[in-house]
Amino acid sequence: MPTSVAACVCEQLTVSCSGDPAQVSLCHCLACQRRTGSTYGIAAFYPRENVRVAGDATAYTRPSDSGYTVTFYFCPHCGSTVYWKASRKPEMVGSPWALSRIRRFRRPLKPSMSNTGIDGFRTCQQVSNVISLRLRRVSL
Questions:
Q1: Rounded to whole angstroms, what are the CA distances from 11 to 70, 96, 101, 103, 138?
Q2: By the 8 A CB rule, do 83 and 21 touch?
Q3: 3-132: what CATH class?
Q4: What's the half-sphere exposure (Cβ side, CA atoms, 13 Å) at 14?
Q5: What are phi and psi of 125, to 5 degrees?
Q6: Model pTM?
Q7: C-alpha span between 66 and 47 (Å, rounded)
Q8: For the purposes of burial, counting CB atoms within 10 Å of the CB of 53, is it exposed (0-12), middle (13-18) or buried (19 or more)?
């Protein structure tokens, strides 16, 4: 069974996830843009029983655009977010896809869902393995 290991920048906090992710999602809400410093964040979600955490973590909980809370766990030394738990998916643990050091999967990973927020982005559409973001105008 493949194992993916996500680590913070200083490698003090690690998360080992066994097996393929149950879900890979792409989120482009404003909070994820701020968290990643990018236009979106890619997350791999694993069943909680397949996840092992090692090291010290500090938690930060915030409401999501859907109204559920999400608790992010980050390294108290370097500040990297390494994993999170969403209250709407209590059986899953999410981890930033970019932090994975080992990527051995049996099948190509494609986003299985796209989250969108109230900040003006529409859902991603996957066409012929290409993800295109459509921007819609929002009147302020």
A1: 23, 15, 11, 17, 41
A2: no
A3: mainly beta
A4: 12
A5: -120, 130
A6: 0.70
A7: 21
A8: middle
Give the Å distances, CA to CA, from 48 to 71, 102, 114: 14, 19, 21
Nearest Cα neighbor of 39 from 130, 119, 99, 127 is 119
- Here the tokens at position 27 are 């989120």
Per-residue pLDDT of 100-138, as tens digits, reads 654 444 445 555 555 554 444 443 433 333 333 333 444
- Residue 112 CB contacts under 8 Å (≥ 6 apart), including other chains: 23, 24, 25
Q: Is 42 within 8 Å of 96 (Cβ atoms)? A: yes
Instruction: Give the residues across from 51 on adjacent strands.
Output: 17
Residues 63-90 have pLDDT tens digits of: 988 889 999 999 999 999 999 999 999 9
SS3 for 1?
Answer: coil
Burial of 135 (0-12, 13-18, 19+ CB in 10 A): exposed
